[in-house]
Amino acid sequence: MNHDFDVISAARNWRTDAVDTATPDQIISSVYSSDVLTLEQLKARLSKPTFKSLQATLERGATLDPSIADTVALAMKTWAMEKGATHYTHWFHPLTGATAEKHDSFVSPNGDGSAIATFSGKELIQAEPDASSFPSGGLRATFEARGYTAWDASSPAFIMRHANGATLCIPTAFASWTGEALDTKTPLLRSVEALNKAVTPALKLFGASEGTRVSSTLGAEQEYFLIAEEYYYRRPDLVMTGRTLFGAQPPRGQELEDHYFGAIPDRVLSYMTDAEQQLYALGIPVKTRHNEVAPGQFEIAPIFEDSNIAADHQQLTMQVLRNTARKYGLVALLHEKPFAGVNGSGKHCNWSMSTNAGENLLEPGDTPHENLQFLFFTSAVIKAVDEHQDLLRISVASASNDHRLGANEAPPAIISIFLGSELSDIFDRLESGQGGRGAEAGLLGLGTSVLPPLPRHAGDRNRTSPFAFTGNKFEFRAAGSSQSISFPITVLNTIVADAVSALAAELKAKLDGGADLNSAVADIVKATYSAHKRIVFNGDGYSDEWHQEAEHGRKLLNLRTTLDAVHHLTDAKNGALFEKFKVLSDRELAARQEIMYDIYFKTVNIEGETTEYMARTMILPAAVKYLSELHAAGGSKAVRGVAAEVEAAADELFDAVQTLSAQNTATGGDEVHEKAHHMRDQVLPAMSAVRKAADKLEKVVAEQHWPLPTYRQMLFVK
Q1: What's the whole-model pTM score?
Q2: Which residues in 589-600 are b (16+ Cβ under 10 Å) and which e?
Q3: Partners of residue 349 on adjacent β-strands
Q4: pLDDT at position 53, please?
Q5: How far is 407 from 343, CA to CA, in rounded Å?
């Protein structure tokens, strides 16, 4: 059977009517947010007093008035049914890193055999799902099943469509019966409020008159791979783990550097267009799409929005990408490292702070050296990242991201900040007392009058930096492509709130003591930068020299693996930080650490058992069958030579599988921490040995006998 031909034929026959034929103008005007219950929709359906009460919650953080719940619920139900919804669900983010939903019908039977559609304020505000099967990290016993979902009024309700209807999705938080957070959203919302309470008073010291609230903003770039659906289902490793546990490198990978920003294949472009229109309908402001570095790899990126909304939208983006791919005979892979030897996938988080008047607090303006407010808040970020390197590293830690971080394709596990030449020069001048502005941007001449001169940034980009200033925001580049962004942003919000609070207290003390604003801010910026400039690095983060300098010269942390990092989550300073800002209690923090250990253990355990299963039932039998065929073919030199190669690799694989089997059977201890370390220290090396031998076999076993789709097929057949 020619599988390559079958896949190519399927690609040519995908449904041409799958893509909406609306013009771009029509998409913008009639599709965007069409499946979102926007403020405008609510305003048109609610009385003025009710809408003002709800608006106070949405825009000023006021406590939700329960008395308006029935009115809002009626408007929400009516809108949803007009959109074709027959069911509703409280849509929440448990500590699995995914989303969860339980659908209930609007239908309520009458006693006379008829039925009506009902949805009450009580059903809107709170639901009670079975919490027993969600991870809690010891916050409650398994038999204690009660949990609550609570309406998050700050995130708009939306419609999710399927082939036979639609469902009203109500974004919610998820808590235990004792009130502890069992989700990623609750701490994120708490951190947003902590940032607001820290930054708003600081702004007043600068005489800010506009903007009564501050929130963090975020735009999360999503990288992913696409492969043909047939190949996916013929790879148990992809189905079970999301990554290939076997696969020899093809003659051509990404060496020619011809995929990045290249022409997008027609089927893929149609898929992207379909997905984007669904995302537009959900109010997700996706803007950019392009080929990424690796063959078969792509990226989609939105415009920034409030971080709690962005977190919801990121989860929806992943869901839409996965679901839509199947319509085109494709599968979207969001694992951080689905293919060894080629670039993995990240999720760059572009973070900043903004007032509700629209002012970006990390916008330097035309004269950043004179922008006191910008320098003050940038100093706070530098201080925050230096003091909490461990938390930033922990926030992106996972078994899958370990394959990517520090692999010359993503930032190293060492956290540092890239400021660029202009901003670094400004801070250096302030520290030395020179002041003023050194590096100038100017214009970039292109050597021909046909092309216009381009404005040149004063600093280049640095793709090796895990935390880079990129003009008016910081780009946290270390997040993994499959993970929820809620915890990384919770950490960022909280550590910056802590730094701003400390610097604002210093500034207030200086101003109360009679200092003028200019000199007071200059002194604080100078002292802060001097104390924390070790975290600033503008060079090559991949180089061995940087690793030596960072660890030994600058004493920065190098938490190479997830288990190295997670160990520090419950350090005293971290517990005190989260408790200070009421983001996570000690119990909630310890629960998250326990869950991270547990997920790491289970992830690698599944990979180890899948590796053993595939080697025993697919790869070794293929090698044995080919050997039998060779032995039956006679004793020519070529046959003997090939048989010897196959036999040597098969024997190596057999021995490696025996070792892996023993490690899979062992546990390393009774505690999840011990099991996790056993996975890292024993199972992963044993898996690597199995793969090494199997990949040797792939290069010498006849193609018709090889049981798995190869990298050549999966990466290049579209």
Answers
A1: 0.91
A2: bbbbbbbbbbbb
A3: 220, 476
A4: 86
A5: 9
